[in-house]
Every structure is written in structure tokens, then in C-alpha cells.
Design brief:
With 127 residues, the protein is mainly beta. It is built from one helix and eight strands. Strands 1-2-3-4-5-6-7-8 form an eight-stranded antiparallel β-barrel. The chain is globular and about 35 Å long.
């Protein structure tokens, strides 16, 4: 039998912890992702993979492999939003990762330095 208000609070806290632990985790933050995108400059669709590694409380390292080409970069953010610089194919650029509302990965916008058109990618937790 539960006695008093504190007893009810304890049961409520335990139930919340059990329910929370049974819910699926959000697919954001460090991990491996399946990438699909469309290059806005040339119109080409592509697929690949990426690995996002947290290197500090708000710093990140990124590696992508798209169409057999490796890209690397670093950035900052809280895991829900991450701003990155990257290099690959002899070019540099910036990317913005925003966690999807449904927790399935990231919506990514990117642009090479000097370009005027933004490209978009869909990252889904995988591999």
C-alpha cells in the first residue's frame, strides 16, 4: 500500500523511468548514417554513408563516403543542430545538420565554398 503524497511521487517517478526506457531512442548524435541526396548544382542523385563522432561536449567530427569519394570535416553543435565545415573532391564547404522531428536522423543542407546553390541530404541511422 502506498502511504501519502511522497509514495505516489515515487511510484510516478518509477513508472516514468520504466516507460522512458522502453521507448525507442532518438536516432541523432554520434553514429553511422545512410545518406541520400541530390546535388543542386548538377542535379545528380547519390547515396552513401556518414559517421558522426562527438569529440567534446559540443564538438564533432564527420566522415562521409559518397560515390567512392571520402569527405571529412569538423563542427560544433548540441546534437540537435550541428554546423560543420568539410573538405573533399579538392573543395571545401559547410553543412548544417538538423535532427528530424521524428527522431529518425538528420535533415542536412550543404554548399561548397563559392557556390550559390544549396544541396540537401537525408541521413537515416543505419549500418
Amino acid at each position: 500500500m502506498i502511504h501519502g503524497f511522497r509514495g505516489y511521487l515515487g511510484v510516478a517517478a518509477l513508472a516514468g523511468a520504466l516507460i522512458g526506457s522502453a521507448l525507442p531512442g532518438h536516432a541523432r548524435g554520434p553514429g553511422n548514417y545512410n545518406v541520400s541526396g541530390k546535388d543542386a548544382v548538377n542535379g545528380g542523385a547519390y547515396t552513401g554513408t556518414s559517421t558522426l563522432t562527438q569529440t567534446g561536449s559540443s564538438t564533432w567530427r564527420i566522415t562521409w563516403r559518397v560515390d567512392g569519394v571520402n569527405f571529412t570535416g569538423s563542427g560544433l553543435g548540441d546534437g540537435d543542430v550541428i554546423a560543420l565545415n568539410f573538405a573533399g573532391r579538392g573543395r571545401t564547404g559547410v553543412a548544417l545538420l538538423k535532427a528530424k522531428g521524428d527522431g529518425s536522423g538528420y535533415d542536412v543542407s550543404w554548399i561548397y565554398s563559392g557556390d550559390r546553390t544549396v544541396s540537401f541530404e537525408d541521413w537515416r541511422k543505419g549500418r
